[in-house]
Description:
The complex is a heterodimer.
Chain A: E1 3-7, E2 10-12, E3 18-25, E4 33-39, E5 45-51, E6 60-62, E7 70-75, E8 80-85, E9 94-102, E10 109-113, E11 117-121
Chain B: E1 4-7, E2 10-13, E3 19-25, E4 33-38, E5 45-49, E6 53-54, E7 62-67, E8 70-75, E9 85-90, E10 97-98, E11 102-106
Parallel strand pairs in B: 2-11
Antiparallel strand pairs in B: 1-3, 3-8, 4-5, 4-9, 5-6, 7-8, 9-10, 9-11
Amino acid sequence: EVQLVESGGGLVEPGGSLRVSCAVSGFTLSNVWMSWVRQAPGKGLEWVGRISSETEGGTSDYATPVRGRFTISRDDSKNTLYLQMNSLKTEDTAVYYCTRARGAGPLYYFDSWGQGTLVSVSS
Amino acid sequence: EIVLTQSPATLSLSPGEGATLSCRASQSVSTYLSWYQQKPGQAPRLLIYDAYNRATGIPARFSGSGSGTDFTLTISSLEPEDFAAYYCQQRGNWPVTFGQGTRLEIK
């Protein structure tokens, strides 16, 4: 059974940093692309970024609002995905979902989701 | 960035009725359009990918259609557990984007 379990969310002040984690099971992390998607309270879904599989170089790509502040990484030996968030802004407040990204072709859809972890940025 | 516009914003129907949800893209995304269901307090769940392919375990009452800029999610006969929010998502052009959602509520 595929499972994704996020952890590490919490309250942080503007300008601060936080790292959230996603432990996966039921598949081999190194073989797949992974992505983070967030949802601000009462709002819709927003793609944050992705990391390619190890075999495809492990490269990452980010949405414009977070580029230069957020970094996605992966520890395949621990089957864990990370999202390092720096220089946090109040508008980064959201539930952050870890997702598995699938699909041949230009980009991807998201076939498995974690339960999400809430990141609140406030003074 | 491709903008996805979903309509209606809210749809009020009764169990047993059929539902038709629309997603329109600001430019063509070919058939690279997916649908997700989200219940309150839960993560989204993939229903349909690439316009018409049902994801694993999704009941046959859910179907998707369309190509280019106009897409439809159809629920043939609503079950009580189908009342939720639905989002479309395109992967035809960078960055992937989502629609703003349709809330399907019990009438």
